[in-house]
Amino acid sequence: MVKLFEPLALRGVTLKNRIVVSPMCQYSAEDGFANDWHLVHLGSRAVGGAGLIIQEATAVSFEGRISPEDLGIWKDEHLPMLRRITDFIVAQGSVPGIQLAHAGRKASTYRPWSGAGEVPLNAGGWPVVGPGDAAFADDYPRPEALDAAGIKKVISDFRAAAGRALAAGYQVVELHAAHGYLLHEFLSPLSNQRTDEYGGSFENRVRLLLEVVAATREMWPDELPLIVRLSATDWTEGGWNADESVQLAALLKTRGVDLIDCSTGGNVPKAPIPVGPGYQVQFAGRIKAEAGIMTGAVGLITTPAEAEAILANGQADLVLLAREFLREPYFPLTAAQELGVEIEWPAQYERAKPRA
Ligand SMILES: Cc1cc2nc3c(=O)[nH]c(=O)nc-3n(C[C@H](O)[C@H](O)[C@H](O)COP(=O)(O)O)c2cc1C
């Protein structure tokens, strides 16, 4: 049996296969609103047969956007277009997921094709927040350290966003606690030097994430799965590391989190990352084995054989693909053919299905 096309039950949701569209910012929204681009982009990958599609980092607040063009879910007005997207994905037999995000001190930056670093206040930028007042890099904005009221607002923004995600028809929420954005900034001692109950010890650094998980679960029903994306390591001495990720994953499992999406890096500019095929898979394997929680593997997985091997070796329960899905929206359809698995094609495309 080919594992890649085995269904996976996550609480009350069943994915038809193990192939996931990894969240990818499209930097194409205005005031957080989704539009035809997002419908066609995500819809194409649903037509292409992905089991789960995790929508890009979607800001829980205006100030939590990475760039001015990020998607958002901080007001009810955002919902109708998001509902169109989820309805379309569901109609293709795929599952719509959403990544809820706050960019922290990496907010208010240019989208890749419009510039680099900080968008100044007089060019549409906004004041940013973080665990402390140190900037991510020289050309990034200097954040204001969150005070107790600011932390409360972050938690309540995630809670409200989870409620809206439900109303918009998403069936999976992924909390973005990776890549040097706000929740990761609190986890890592390199970005979190607070002296209150949110900084210092492991227990204090993970506190914000655990509180966000609890607030999310208040709105997100028991029948629906909750995923957390972690950067399993900062790849930097003295930073967040794989041992702490294992410890955190075990804690998250007891707090209603079903699966850890195992990425790395993003919190330290120019960290020495040994990029290569499947370079992050080891972390999915370790967290799955040592924390006893389901995992997703991501990072330079580009072929059906690689994806299948990760599952067959027991290193992960899901494989997430990002850039390969930009090259090939129909990856699952062609992967099935390559691995000799019979799957249904969209009826509209049936006449193009290769016959043995
Ligand atoms: C265009 C683009 C946008 C991305 N946006 C996000 C995002 O919104 N949230 C996130 O967690 N990761 C984001 N990523 C990272 C991917 O989800 C993925 O982890 C990374 O690209 C490695 O997978 P790959 O080698 O299959 O591309 C993005 C990557 C790309 C290429």
UniProtKB/TrEMBL annotation:
Gene3D superfamilies: Aldolase class I (3.20.20.70)
Domain NADH:flavin oxidoreductase/NADH oxidase N-terminal: 3-339
Keyword Chloroplast among UniProt keywords: no
CC cofactor: FMN
Keyword hit for Transcription regulation: no
Annotated protein name in UniProt: NADH:flavin oxidoreductase/NADH oxidase
InterPro entries per record: Aldolase_TIM, OxRdtase_FMN_N, YqjM-like
A Pfam family matched in the record: Oxidored_FMN
GO molecular function, one term: FMN binding
Annotated keywords: Flavoprotein, FMN, NADP, Oxidoreductase
